[in-house]
Design a protein that fits this description.
77% of the residues lie in helices and 1% in strands. The chain has 14 helices and two strands. It has a two-stranded antiparallel sheet with strand order 1-2. The protein is globular and about 55 Å long. It holds the Pfam family MFS_1.
Amino acid sequence: MRNKTTPYLSGRFFDGISSGLFMMALPWLMLKTPDMGTFVALTALACTSNSFLCTPFFSTLIDRHSRKAILVWVQVLQSSTAAVVGIIYLLGVGSHWVLAFSQLVFWVSSNIAWNTNNAFTQENYRSHEYAKISGYQEVVMQTTTLGAGAVGIILLEQWGILEFAAFAALASGLAALSYGLTPYNRQVKPSSKVSFFSQIKESKAIFTAEPVFYGFLLISCLSYPILTYLGKLIPIWFAELDVSGSWVALYNMAFGLGSLVTGLLISRIIGRISHENIMQYSMLVLAFILLAMSGVVQPLYIVLLTLSFGFFNALNRIARTNWMHHTVDMAQRGRVDGGLGMFATLVQSLSYVLIAFLAHFDAIEYGFVIVGVIVLFASIGMIAMSKKLPLSCNPNQKPKPNQEPNLDQSHQQTDSALTTQH
């Protein structure tokens, strides 16, 4: 496990620090120009919309091609994009449109990489290794998030686009190299008889075949839009309370630290509690944390509650990912993650509409209790649905994912290049 894990986690580290810092810098650099707030908001909306529309196509590509090759090519694309941006600004012809386009590329490609990493982990590791590698991944992800945030506080005031572009190009290049050096035991190769668009159409049939199971997963996915919702709501709430901006930084650090603790403990927790119980009760705890946030106005208490929120948010997400490693067909993993991602993106967009509505009516303080009640009812729904989950969704009732797959769909081979299907 160590031989393939060290280069793989190195790739995730450089990927996270590159995209995290560059995606943080781009809006900030655009906002340095007066009256660019609306443009930055519309850019974020365009990124979200394009990511949503592209997901069915890219998730199908994940099920048709080498997951390792996709990870490598995403990093090559990001490195090239950052390098081109740097060259454009070096020539003195840069504009906010260049920055907006590069943000779109990084945004969409980062979502592709996220889904690909899930499928790659399921395919390249054995079932007894899933919990341990998930813990490692969480520690690396939160370390890069905290690191990018801490470094960003210093560098945003000192660096320009040339420095950020050069850093992103170098870091993404190192990520591509690390992924390229990762040993890969490819197990999924779809039949050439199945066309690309036929596989896209199959996505609906995948979800309708097990509606209770995927409904359970969809509710669990609410934890991501809740996170992004709080990321927008809390700064607005703190601004209305006229508290220091440093509390916003502390909020982000508290969330990262809570998630980091989850990464350190997850292998022990998953070894003692079933995945579905972790997910449903983590969501229930998140609902109570949100309701508790609605009853406090001191930023210290919100930051302390955020520590617990970060822990249980990550716990729910990692348990869901691991459960899918054991239960979802490897050959369908890209499309399943894509469908779940589209649902999360849709809810995320609706949550931003709610924030705009509350801000318009000067009722932002009700944002916590509204989403808290929604999550509470969703959690109760999960508990009810867990009693109807089919036995086929129990890892102990299914063949191990790393057993010899159907030869019609997959075979074992070492892979290092993208195989084009016609």
